[in-house]
Design goal:
By secondary structure, the protein is an alpha+beta fold. It has one domain: Nucleoside Triphosphate Pyrophosphohydrolase, CATH 3.90.79.10. It is built from 6 helices and 8 strands, in the order αααββββαββββαα. The protein is globular, with a radius of gyration of 15 Å.
Amino acid sequence: MDRINLKEQLGRYRTPYEEESSFIQDFLELTEDPLAYGRERLDGHFTASAWIVNRKRTHTLLTLHRKLGRWLQLGGHADGNEDLLEVAMKEANEESGLKSLEFVDKTIFDLDKHIIPERPHVPEHFHFDVRYILEADLYEPLIKSDESISLAWVAFDSVQDVIGYNPSILRMLDKTSKSEILL
């Protein structure tokens, strides 16, 4: 999926979740900026994530992010790649070591615009995260990357206990339980 396809998908994207709906236009506008796919765009840029679930839809794979110190879905920076579908798969594979990863659907699963705190040499900025849903074998061995403190399959009914309150992850969890594409 390149910039044109992303813009088309964003134009068709609808969500019943008010917060998510409120920033679709921001994502659409960002597609017009050729610098939006690189982290050099300091006020905000695209990232891509993978919401990974097992085939029976009972668990999701989460990482305890080293820099942020929070449990999150796997994903990362586009680093100039305008194919965010490809970025999501690459990041999921690099951060988990899973070879069984497959897209459940190649359309956008979720969108989230969130602030990244300032760090040395990096100002506070926004991530415009485009998320896709993937599935993998729950029993395949995991290989943790340097970006993670930990990596774990978390049962759906334990996600909130593990992550605390993170509305975007809870939204993806809710979508997973309601989605017809997952059956």
